[in-house]
Amino acid sequence: MKIYPIETGNLKLDGGAMFGVVPKNLWQRTNPADTNNMIDLAMRCMLIEDGNRLILIDTGLGNKQSDKFFGYYYLFGDATLDISLAKLGFHRDDITDVFLTHLHFDHCGGSIQWNNSKTFYEPAFKNAKFWSNQDHWNWATNPNDREKASFLKENINPMQDSGQLNFINLSENKIQKNSELGFDIFLADGHTDKQMIPMIKYQEKTLVFMADLLPTTGHIPLPFVMGYDTRPMLTLKEKKQFLNTAADEEFILFLEHDTQSELCTVQHTEKGVRLKNTFKFTDIFN
Prior knowledge:
The protein is α/β, with parallel strands linked by helices.
């Protein structure tokens, strides 16, 4: 097995929304805001090469939305999913599986694209299975008013229409033992219903793709919960459970939205679990 970080570009979001009730003078120490109160965020995906399978975890924002839509998110940087794949010698047609932690547009938008004539939407990975779960799919396709703007029909419905959509079978356990894709899944319901956090055994370590359970290192303190989360008190509980285990078992945390740090570790302190170290992917893994 080989694992690679895949940069798909960066965006800016409101710092207050990203940190909820936490005062700006606290969160801006780790995530400085510009004059419009916007902070820099990555959309870093993960590629797993395992035998004859090439598994992509999340797909970034994509490029099919209108200029008006993109104008809200201040995209910056030269990285794209295709450029990142090409640097590794891969093409999107090589992808066999696309695992989606959840269906918010910045995590799944790159899954669907316009056809050449821009007359209909089609899967951006024509040879891949798309993986979600039935509970989250139902949540996303019948969205509540608070999340409706994050679940875009053009990102979601074409997956099912294509016949490429598959569902992970979930049990009642918080950690799902999944043999289909070769990694376990931590279920987190605070941000959105049945967000799936991959936990991958790699080079004798546990590498965890944090998605929106921990967007950046600045979100490690327990009260630092996004305003976007639908159940913030549940996020608080889930973070506490997960971060205590991550500190105990020395997990390596893969950060999807942190522009400065690809990976981090955490440790127990008198103030609770806090950041231990940050790393580039190549600092730890060959």
